[in-house]
């Protein structure tokens, strides 16, 4: 099933998984624990703050400068992962296997949770979307960003699943500064983490965080161009893939293609989300996992994704042919068919016709 496929896609054999997990533990030490200890120490020593380094130091190599840049990324990640799959309670619940390395009481350092709490109280909230547009809200609004009754308060020594996802994305952003974090990555990592964290085998479940990180990294190595705006109009960019949906539709159903063209319904109006997020926003999580199961088992997985998108259009062709612009946009933004088996079967038929 899906777990086996995603492990195989990431070359995660049990023996290799052990070494990968050790590498991930080292990432946590270097990117979260050690900077957290350094920050705590800087806060206590006035001499270090004023002579060696200080919060207003313009030097790009300044520890404070890097700390503040990381906080911008962390705040966006935090905002997104807290609302991950809001129709499910899973991500708000405590994990059975909290990261002992992070929660070790012997480590006196600033945790990611503490960084977010302090930053939202002291600074403006920075929201960077995929287009690079930065929205800054006032400090007053930041204080009320997360109402106290919105999320269950977990006891000391516990952490919610969304906090684990937050850590995975923060480490990924630190290791990949060229892309860092872009809104939507949370929707990609969510199903992967859920699959590992609900594995009936406790040996896999216990290491869901590290295994998810490497599977997500490998998946992003194939999918990351969709998240880089400067590549949008290149051959490997998202624009080319969106146009592929329409060119494929033209081959498979020219009447429907001409109808969408006539109504000036451009592929970017709906296929941008479908392709970039691998349909994770269009269906319930169990159905997303079922779709990914088929996608990741296909050697031409992203070409098959184009066919899945075409199948989704063809299956509602009668409604689209009868509807006006407004009706059709509503259909495409809120896809009406929930039977993913039917969609995948149609996509396979389209593939066999090629």
Automatic annotation (TrEMBL):
Key words, A-Z: Cytoplasm, GTPase activation, Membrane
GO CC, alphabetical: cytoplasm; membrane
GO biological process, one term: intracellular protein transport
Keyword Phosphoprotein assigned: no
Compartmental location: Cytoplasm; Membrane
Ranges for domain Rab-GAP TBC: 1-299
UniProt cross-references to Pfam families, sorted A to Z: RabGAP-TBC
SUPFAM superfamilies: Ypt/Rab-GAP domain of gyp1p
GO molecular function: GTPase activator activity
Taxonomy, superkingdom: Eukaryota
PROSITE patterns: TBC_RABGAP (PS50086)
InterPro entries hit by this protein: Rab-GAP-TBC_dom, Rab-GAP_TBC_sf
Record's function text: Acts as a GTPase-activating protein for RAB35. Together with RAB35 may be involved in regulation of insulin-induced glucose transporter SLC2A4/GLUT4 translocation to the plasma membrane in adipocytes.
Known partners and oligomeric status: Interacts with RAB1A and RAB10; in a GTP-dependent manner.
PANTHER family xref list: TBC1 DOMAIN FAMILY MEMBER 13, TBC1 DOMAIN FAMILY MEMBER GTPASE-ACTIVATING PROTEIN
Name of the protein described by the UniProt record: TBC1 domain family member 13
Organism lineage string: Eukaryota, Metazoa, Chordata, Craniata, Vertebrata
